[in-house]
Amino acid sequence: MKPADVKEFFHLLARDRSDPKTELDYKNPYTLLVAVTLSAQATDISVNKATEPLFKTVDTPQKMVALGETKLKGFIKTIGLFNTKAKNVIALSQILIDKHGGEVPHDRDALEALPGVGRKTANVVLNVAFGEPTIAVDTHIFRIGNRTGLAPGKTPRAVEDKLLKVVPKEYMQHAHHWLILHGRYICVARKPKCYECVVIKQCGFKGKTTLAEAE
Predict the structure, then answer these.
(1) Can you give the residue ranges of every domain in the chain?
(2) What is the C-alpha separation between 211 and 110, in angstroms, rounded?
(3) Alpha-carbon distance values, 13 to 2, 45, 64, 82, 88 (Å)
(4) Is 138 noted as a catalytic residue in this protein?
(5) Domain spanning 29-128: CATH superfamily
(6) 6 and 168 in contact (C-beta within 8 Å)?
(7) Residue tagged active-site, from 99, 138, 165, 191
(8) Is 120 a catalytic site residue?
(9) What is the second-level CATH architecture of the domain 3-19+137-214?
(10) Could you check whether 3-19+137-214 and 29-128 share the same CATH topology?
(11) Whose CA is closest to 179, among 199, 153, 209, 207?
(12) Each residue of 6-50: pLDDT tens digit?
């Protein structure tokens, strides 16, 4: 995709969604970290259903450690891989208390050193909680990067690196959310809703769908 097309691509996404936000519910950087950790291989909707009652009383590492792994499992048992996730959340909460004064660190290396926190999770926390211009490549962004020609790559990291090079600076802050929301609701995996797409002219996808095909 040519630079001019990339700029117009994000201009149109920005015009379509002027104030994009994460669809995960959270109260502070800590609950955001927990929610993103729980969202691996799960939908935001399922995570929100589990964390709504949890976050009403548990919103700090100290309260999470006091809750304990067994009780935490009771809150998140509807989420995939809940046993491992519960273990990781309790462990990372203890590390935050022991090493970071109970605060979520504004540092990539420190975040990625936490149990269950990889590059994607760290990128989300850095972007949403601290306003860093990072891009967390999930399945939606990976698909859009390759399908549209915006940032083709064989791995999530390759797509991330390409996006960091091509996304205009003025759109970098919210690029992550524009792409995720576009992939979640328009540029879906099986039958993309090309007939509703605001960036159809900039998109290089050759198998564009029509409304008639969708019906």
Answers:
(1) 3-19+137-214, 29-128
(2) 47
(3) 17, 23, 38, 35, 36
(4) yes
(5) Hypothetical protein; domain 2 (1.10.340.30)
(6) yes
(7) 138
(8) yes
(9) Orthogonal Bundle (1.10)
(10) no
(11) 199
(12) 999 999 999 998 888 899 999 999 999 999 999 988 899 999 999
